[in-house]
Amino acid sequence: MKALSYEELRALYKKFLHSQDISKATINTAYVDTFYLWRKGSKELFWSAVTATDFENEARNALIKGLSENSTGNVNSLVSGYMSHLRRFRLFLSSDEIIAPVEYKQQITVKPKPASREIIINKMYVGGYLSEGDNIGHEIINLYKADDGKNYIYLNSQGTIELSRGENSITVLLVRKFASKIYKVLAKAEGIMILDFADSKLPRKQRYKGQVALGLTYGGVSLVDLFNENSYRGSLEEEKNAYTTFVADRVIKPKNQIYITDDESVSGDNTFFIRTNKGFGKQTLREFYSENEKPESFTDLNQIIENKELWEEANTTQAISELPEPQKDPYFNFLKIIRQEDNELAFSNMFAYFFDINRDAFSRFAQEVLSVDIQTDFTIEREKKNIDLLISDKNNAVVIENKIKSSINGINERHDIYSNQVQSQLKKYYQFVTTDDEYCKKTVSCFIFSPNYNRIDLSKFSCGEKYTVVYYREIYNFFVENRNCFDEVPYFEDFINAMHKHTKDYDNELEEEMQRRFQNTIYKAKKR
Asked: Which InterPro entries match (predicted)?
C-alpha cells in the first residue's frame, strides 16, 4: 500500500469511499482533505501519521504544525475536520476489503464485502442522573453541530461501542421516552463513523485522552469543559470518559411528530409498531437491530427511516453560534426549584387551596369547565376514601381524580363478570359516592384532571363511562383569564406557571430543560 503513488492511493481510496454509506459531498471533501499532510508535507509524513501507534496525538500534532504554517484560519477548528478524515482512512487501512491495484491504473478497484446494516436506538434524556443538580446529559450534543460544522453523536450510556460494529452500515435513531411503551423519534443520524477512542475495550482514561485530543468545541467552549460541573450522587464527577461516539454525515429531523412502540394496541397514524421478541428494553439505553440477527425489527425500523415523507429534506441541526442567546424561562416556578413539577399530590393540594380561597371563582369554574352548578357553600375534602378531591354542596357531589404521570390503578386482578373491563379505582370511587348516605341523594359528577399530553382510554375501565376527562389546558386557561380574582393571593403565579408544562400536547419539558442548561453553560463559560 505504501508503495502506491499519490494518485494511485487517492483513486483506490475514492473507490472505498463510494462503497460506504456517506454523501457525495463528504466523499469529495475526503478525497482531498485526507491527504493534506502528503500535499503540504511529504509522503513519509503522511504515512508516519496515519500508521502511528499513538495516532491521535502524532497525527494531531503534525496537522497543527502543517496548518499553522500553511493556513490563515482557526487551526483548532480546522484540525478536527482533518482528523476525522484520517480516522476514516485508518478504517480503510484496517479493512480486508481492498484488492491490490493491478498493472494498469484504470483497473484499480475495491471489492467490498456486503456490509450488514444495523439500526441503533439511542434513548436520550433518561435516568435520575439528569435530575441531580443542573447536570447536562452528554447526549445533548446529538442535536447540535460542533463548531467544526460536523454532527457528533453520543451513544448512551457511556459513549462507548465495540469497534467491530464499524464493519456495519449504521443508522442511529435518536428517541426519548414519551409514554408507557411509546418513544418519540427526535432524529436519525446517517453516514455513521465510529471514533477510535470510543472503543469499549480501551481504559476510561485513554478514551478521555482521545476525546481531549479531538479538540471539539461548541459555541467556542471545549466540549470536555462543558460537563465539568456535572455531579453524581452529590459529588463532582471525577472519572472522565468519551463524550462522543460517532461522527455523522447528517442528522435529519422528522417533519412532524412520529413515535415508535412495541405494543401494537397503541399504534396509529403517526405511532409505528415495531416487532420485537421481548419489547424494547426497560433498562438499556441503547438497542441494536441488525438486519441479520433481528430482521423483523430491522425491517419495521428501516421502513420508517427510508420513508422520505416522514423526514425533513436537509440537515437542520444548528451550531450554538447560530442560535439566539437563551432567555430566562418565563414559566419558572417554585415547583421547578424543588423538582416537584410532576407531583400529583402537590397539584391536588394546590387545586384544593385555590378552589377554596375564592369560592365565587370556583363556582364559575364549575359552571364553565365542569358544567356543574355548584353554590359557594361547598366543602372540599382531600383523600377521603383515597379520592383526590371530593367537592360537595347540598345538591352535588363532585369526584376529581388528578392524574399526571401515574396511570389509573386497578383494585385487583379480576375483570367484571359481564365485560372485559378492569375493576379500578374509578369504580371504587363511583360506588362510594353513589352508596354513601352523605352523598347518594346528590347529583354525582366524576372527573379526571389530566395533562394534555396524556391519552386516557376510559373504555378499558369499569365505570369509565361515568367519568369525564378535563385537560389541564382548560383549567389553566380559566385561571389565566380570571387571574384578577386572585390578586394578592400568594403563589398564584407559581401555581399557573407550574401548570403550564402540562398544557402542552407533547411532554418536551426535560428535552427543553437540557437544551437550556447546555446553552446557558456555554454562555456563562464565554463570559468568564
From this structure: PDDEXK_4
DSSP string, 463-484: TGGGEEEEEHHHHHHHHHHTGG
DSSP 369: I
**Residues 272 and 300: beta-carbon distance below 8 Å:** yes
Strands 318-319 and 144-145: parallel
Measure CA 406 to chain center: 21
pLDDT tens digits for range 118-141: 999 999 887 666 656 677 788 888
Q: Is 171 helix (H, G, I), strand (E, B) or coil?
A: strand
What's the Cα-to-Cα distance from 462 to each of 281, 383, 403, rounded to whole Å? Answer: 31, 21, 17
245-262, pLDDT tens digit by residue?
999 999 999 998 899 999
* Domains identified in the chain, total number: 3
On whether both 429 and 397 belong to a single domain, the answer is yes
DSSP 366: I
261 in Cβ contact with 183 (< 8 Å): yes
Going 69 to 75 to 76 to 78, the CA torsion angle's sign is negative
Given its phi and psi angles, is residue 71 left (phi above 0), alpha (psi -120 to 50 degrees) or beta? beta
Contact 176, 125 (CB under 8 A): yes
Q: Which amino acid is at 267?
A: S
C-alpha closest to that of 214 among 313, 82, 386: 82
**pLDDT computed for residue 105 by the predictor:** 30
Q: Is 393 in the same domain as 460? A: yes
**315 and 367 inside one domain:** no
Output the nine-digit C-alpha cell for 412.
Answer: 385487583
State the residue range of the domain holding 342.
Answer: 334-507
Judged against a pLDDT cut of 50, whether residue 110 lies above it is answered with no
In angstroms, rounded to a whole number, what is the distance separating the alpha carbons of residues 256 and 269?
A: 12
| Global pTM value | 0.60
Helix (H) or strand (E) holding 442: none
Count of positions (residues) in the chain = 528
Measured between alpha carbons, how far apart are the two ends of the chain, in Å?
A: 50
Show the cell assigned to 506.
Answer: 407533547
Q: Three-state SS for 389?
A: strand
Give the whole-angstrom CA distance, residue 410 versus residue 426. Answer: 9
Do residue 95 and residue 131 come from a single domain? no
Measured between alpha carbons, how far is residue 226 from residues 155, 179, 377, 397, 444 in Å?
17, 30, 57, 55, 56
Angle at 188 between CA 187 and CA 194, to 5 degrees: 125
The closest of 362, 357, 438 to 400, measured between CA atoms, is 362
d(CA 484, CA 493): 11
Q: How many Cβ atoms are within 10 Å of 316's Cβ, its own excluded?
A: 11
